[in-house]
Amino acid sequence: MADTLSFTQLYIDGWAVDGGSEPLEVEDPATEEVFTTVPTASPAQVDAAIEAARRAFDRGQWSRQPVSERVSTLARMARVLAARRAELIETVIRETGATQLVAQWAQVDMSLDQARQLPELFATLPEWEHNEVPLAESFDPAGRDVVMSIRRYEPCGVVAAITPYNFPLQTGVWKVFSALAAGCSVILRPSPLTPLTALALGAAAQEAGLPPGVLNVVVEAGSAGAELLTSDRRVDCVSFTGSTEVGRRIAAQAAPTVKRLLLELGGKSVQLYLPDALGPGAIEAGVATVFGSQAGQGCALQTRMLVPRDRLDECVERAGAMARSLRVGNPRDPETAVGPVISAAQRGRVERLVAAGVEAGGTLVAGGERPAHLPVGYYVAPTVVRVEDNRNPLAQHEVFGPVVTIQGYDDLDQAVEITNDSEYGLAAGVYTADLKLGLSLSDRIRTGTVQINRGAASAYTPMGGVKQSGIGRERGVAGFREYQELKHVVLAGAR
């Protein structure tokens, strides 16, 4: 078994520096044991990181470097991370509670692929484009000089990247590699629950030879540093992934300095099954996907199942049976399908929401308790609740745990109405053999992503939400544009 990564210093202005505040204990959610400590930044060190990023950007050693050179440096950084794959996998298992399969495939390998692919994709983008000016307007009124109207894409400046605990390496890669490719300077502040992979990004940047101040990594136990990052005038953009509640606070903190915002927030996504998609294994796969994906701790997971009402009883039975069949326990056991949630506080929140959903009229089909054979670790049994009313708290609130609701619909108009009856709008899934009908339904669903029969999440595909699920997009071309300013340049002959 590989060792976990261990860090004794932070990364500020090109240096590995000692923390200025008390060390932070990192807990394994599967064992409730503290397995390492990491340094934390004092308020003065967060301020120094901001100043270093500002100075680096304004001096232009990175921001005005040719794209080919930036991409080459980021490719070295990606290779450094890839060389630490085994340690990253072990680290992710211990700090997030991910199962072996999820840690390897979704947490680390996808991140390593995207660290390589994002710079490659950026290198293909034009640095400028012609505006769509009519040919007749491409000359001055006298007809002597050609007028050239273009749009240039320039780095937006200093980016504060604040990442969550559930997929810390993936979200760190999305933000850091996209912003750096665009020419920005970055201060990365991870969740205090999962700081190790963020420090791994800082170490990789230092080894790859990024100029001083271009990537700074600061860890803290509280939120004072994050609040400085979201309010300081020297920061141009805040890129945050996390809950809608915190996202609202960040938007308010950023408003006085009118910062650019990229907010990827909560979700309450639907998996909508049409009658022709209820064959053997379909419902079962939908349930297993939610529970097996970081114990349901994913903002885009499809945790609301909608099925035709005349098949509801059958689907409820199948969903409950599948939930009860999944092995919960040690993340390193290859037979384990569901690991722990991140903390005692999160487990308590899940339990309270399930209780509220049952009190509001939901029927507990499976789970709803702590597994009796796991007295240690922050485990919740895979839980299925049948709801009759979309106003049920479990149908409206993001749970962020291994909980699925299942609900019937009478016709497709009602199914779409239920799908859209949410403050969230991050993702949705439509399952049908009729692709034309599925595409038609996707037009009516108000979410940032609609998956018809399957998803496609990679460096090349955008992710983000509408309504209370956020602002802007991560990944892909759209993700790069979040870290760029569009400048209109007009060029004509001298008078």
Automatic annotation (TrEMBL):
- In which domain of life is the source organism classified? Bacteria
Q: Spell out the catalytic residues.
A: 264
Indicate yes or no for the key word Nucleotide-binding.
no
Domain named Aldehyde dehydrogenase is located at 19-489
Alphabetized, the UniProt keywords read: Oxidoreductase
Q: State the SUPFAM superfamilies in the record.
A: ALDH-like (SSF53720)
Q: Which Pfam families match?
A: Aldedh
Tagged with keyword Oxidoreductase: yes
Q: Which InterPro entries match?
A: Ald_DH/histidinol_DH, Ald_DH_C, Ald_DH_CS_GLU, Ald_DH_N, Aldehyde_DH_dom
The GO terms this record gives for MF are: oxidoreductase activity, acting on the aldehyde or oxo group of donors, NAD or NADP as acceptor
The family assignment reads:
Belongs to the aldehyde dehydrogenase family.
The name this protein carries in UniProt is Aldehyde Dehydrogenase
Q: What organism is the protein native to? A: Pseudofrankia inefficax (strain DSM 45817 / CECT 9037 / DDB 130130 / EuI1c) (Frankia inefficax)
